[in-house]
Amino acid sequence: MELWDRKGFSKVGSTIGVPLFVDKLTEERRRTAYARMCIEVDTNCKFHKDVTVVLDQKKACTILVEYNWKPPRCTHCDVIGHTDKKCPSKPKNTEKGATVWLQR
């Protein structure tokens, strides 16, 4: 419960990205089994399964992290919203010897 306030949520969320807000049940401490946060992440976010938060010089805490949703990310053009398979800027591979029809 040491991290269960705005400062604590900010400290934990900052290890992942930019913390935006917590949900109403978390803020009102009506559900203390876990906290739900909305965090803005960079396109290169690794989505770690746990984060380590330093509480003071003698104490650190490892917190398990789950993600409700992970956006589709294209590693070819580094854009969120589509995957490599549907990347509009990726050149299309054609098989050797395949007939390609062009409209005149």
Automatic annotation (TrEMBL):
GO MF terms, alphabetically ordered: exonuclease activity; nucleic acid binding; zinc ion binding
InterPro entries hit by this protein: At4g02000-like, Znf_CCHC_sf
Keyword vocabulary terms for this entry: Exonuclease, Hydrolase, Nuclease
Protein name: Rna exonuclease
